[in-house]
Amino acid sequence: MQQDILINWSPQETRVAIVEHGAVQELHVERTLERGLVGNVYLGKVARVLPGMQSAFIDIGLERAAFLHVADVWHPPAEGESLSASRASQPQIPIEKQVFEGQSLMVQVIKDPIGTKGARLSTQISIAGRLLVFLPQDDHIGVSQKIPTTQRDELRSRLQKLAGKEGGGFILRTNGEEASDTELGDDIAYLRKAWARIKDAALRLPAQSLLHQDLSLLQRVLRDLVGEGTQTIRVDSREQFDLLKAFGSEFMPAAAEKLQHYKGERPIFDLYSIDEEIAKALARRVELKSGGYLIVDQTEALTTVDVNTGGFVGARNFDDTIFKTNLEAAQAIARQLRLRNLGGIIIVDFIDMAREDHREAVLGEFRKQLARDRVKTMAGGFSQLGLVEMTRKRTRESLAHMLCEPCPTCEGKGIVKTPRSVAYDIFREILREARQFNPREFRVVASPKVIELFLDEESQHLAGLSEFIGKPVSLQSEAAMAQEQYDIVLL
Length: 491
Prior knowledge:
By secondary structure, this protein is an alpha+beta fold. About 35% of the residues lie in helices and about 25% in strands. The strands form five sheets. The chain has a six-stranded mixed beta sheet with strand order 16-17-18-19-21-20, with helices on one face. Strands 3-2-1-14-15 form a five-stranded mixed beta sheet, with helices on both faces. The chain is globular.
């Protein structure tokens, strides 16, 4: 599949769009202030050793000293023994016998600083690649536990041959399960080169220096997103183009050749109306060209996609109308999953089809479109209720979770109580408080719509309540209040 990659860079945010046949298929966003430190490697300086806590504070040049616990201090395993087996068999050496104040120490951040707590560190370095994780201090060859047991031995032996005898261990990640030897070899070469740069920087730079930063989104574009079908990678920042060109020339020469600096006057995302596509990707309803539409609902547990014919009446008979709507929907759903980066369990409710050949054709088209997804997907057949169940691996936050937050009024429910429901809640609350307190007057402070209802349709009930409790009830409209909000003031 031929594709173009567009990169829109600004100091506060990087946005990457993958375009195929003029349509946006994927969108990746990284914000400078939200970028964590996990994976960064520093040359730290031991500031304090605390034997009572079996930990040490390490100065890595941040605002707060970072924290190193004795359990995270690496020591070499015995020959032929993996690091995990070594830890299990050897007694823990006290931290005061392993590090001392003023010592320079290569460390990696394993947990970001939170609140008043500094970052958590480890002295065991691991460098993540696209398909592999490199463990330069260990010779262990491992395979992700998420890969089926039946395939692990074969993958481990392949990786052992490719790794050679240059030292260091590798762990195969889940997305490397079906990788070719060439792809694995390229990843091994990249990781070894990255480790060589870290060692060189540790010898040249002073303590409290950053030796290696986990790749930015721009760099991950070259490492993870560029494939044989990529025609161009266009960047709208000259500075970032030069940095990316230098990085790519050293680590990924084939990808670097496709880089272009975009000099057009129009914003780069305007070329394919990408901002409009982002707005559509945040909406619940997705229009289809035929007149049908999708309803996409994302919840904590799963995502549901409902297909509707809408105003589509173009086919000769009803069965054909349904079939053509479902066929178009199969293509649109696969694209929406990528664009919105929806993961986990997904339930698709296609329109019921009477003919078996129509069901098979729709399912075949759906699986064909899902096969283009770089993220692992698995789709079943039609259930007894006519639903298609599928899963898509979660790789990062969905687009909606990244760009949006729950509505403070409805708190993510998507609905609010009607003014009448709120008014009746207020009646019950006044009755409850009248039994406990004996104020001179009750004052209701609520949104304009609720107060309007009290003054109009519910005025008779309000007067009856006031008479029943033997206290006056006054009203105060507050425009700043949401529909469900109210206060009952005792005067």
